[in-house]
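Record type: monomer structure entry
Structure origin: computed from sequence
Chain ID: A
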Amino acid sequence: QVQLVESGGGLVQPGGSLRLSCAASGSLFITSVMGWYRQAPGKQRELVADITSGGSTNYADSVKGRFTISRDNAKNTVYLQMNSLKPEDTAVYYCNLRRLYDNYNYWGQGTQVTVSS
């Protein structure tokens, strides 16, 4: 069983920064693709960024150059550093673990990020 616990959300002004963290329990972390998704009110959940066990990364076009995903396999933790935040980044951010052998997805409970002056 996998549990994902996110932290680090909050309210920030446009242009500010936040770092999200997601700690995973269990033994799947090191072999799994980890990702961050977000869902704004009235919109579908979308991929923000993901990272493979080997460190290869993938970003949504809307966050390239502003967000950085990273992982610490020793701590079973994935991070999302968000810089130059914009109001359109406002959403609930979800941590995701994708199990490789069957693509089963585990989700965290979500953390709210609000970008507003």
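Annotation 1: The chain has a mean pLDDT of 96.
Annotation 2: The radius of gyration is 13 Å.
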